[in-house]
């Protein structure tokens, strides 16, 4: 069982930056593949970024070049650095984890564990 706790959300202006953190319980964090998803009001939860156990990152096209996902295994933590934020980035951001490796980390169904989410609001 893995528990995930996100933090770092908040209210910012367009163009600002935020760094989200997700701390995982357990002693095998380094073997997990981690993802960030987001859900805006009235919309489905969507993939944002993932990082596999080898620290290879994956991004959805709308955030590529603005967001950076990274992990620090010694701290059981995965980060999402978000720069040049836009109002359309407003959403609840969720951290997710899976022990399985895939060629495509976008599907929500591939993740076994989820955090409770952290709100990110970007004003124009």
Characterize the main sheet: 7 strands, mixed
Radius of gyration: 13 Å
Mean pLDDT, to the nearest integer, reads: 96
What pattern of helices and strands is seen along the backbone?
A: EEEEEEEEEEE
Low-confidence stretches: none
What share of residues are in beta strands? over 45%
Helix/strand structural class: mainly beta
What attributes characterize this protein structure?
0% helix; mainly beta; globular; four-stranded antiparallel sheet; single chain; seven-stranded mixed sheet; 124 residues
Please outline the helices and strands:
Elements: E1 4-7, E2 10-13, E3 18-24, E4 33-39, E5 46-51, E6 57-59, E7 67-72, E8 77-82, E9 91-98, E10 113-114, E11 118-123
Q: How would you portray this structure in words?
A:
The protein has about 120 residues and is mostly beta strands. The protein is built from no helices and eleven strands. It has strands at about 5, 10-15, 20-25, 35-40, 45-50, 55-60, 65-70, 75-80, 90-100, 115, 120-124. The strands form two sheets. Strands 2, 4, 5, 6, 9, 10 and 11 form a seven-stranded mixed β-sheet that branches. A hairpin with a 6-residue loop joins strand 4 and strand 5. It starts with a strand and ends with a strand. The model has no long low-confidence stretch (mean pLDDT about 95).
């Amino acid at each position: 069982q893995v528990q995930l706790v996100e933090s770092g959300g908040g209210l910012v202006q367009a163009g600002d930056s935020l760094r989200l953190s997700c701390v995982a319980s357990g002693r095998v964090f380094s073997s997990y593949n981690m993802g960030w998803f987001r859900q805006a009001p009235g919309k489905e939860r969507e993939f944002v970024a993932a990082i596999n156990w080898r620290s290879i990152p994956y991004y959805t096209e709308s955030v590529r070049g603005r967001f950076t996902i990274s992990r620090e295994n010694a701290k059981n933590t995965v980060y999402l650095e978000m720069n040049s934020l836009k109002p359309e980035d407003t959403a609840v951001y969720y951290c997710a984890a899976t022990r399985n490796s895939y060629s495509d980390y976008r599907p929500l169904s591939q993740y076994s564990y989820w955090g409770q989410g952290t709100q990110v609001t970007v004003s124009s």
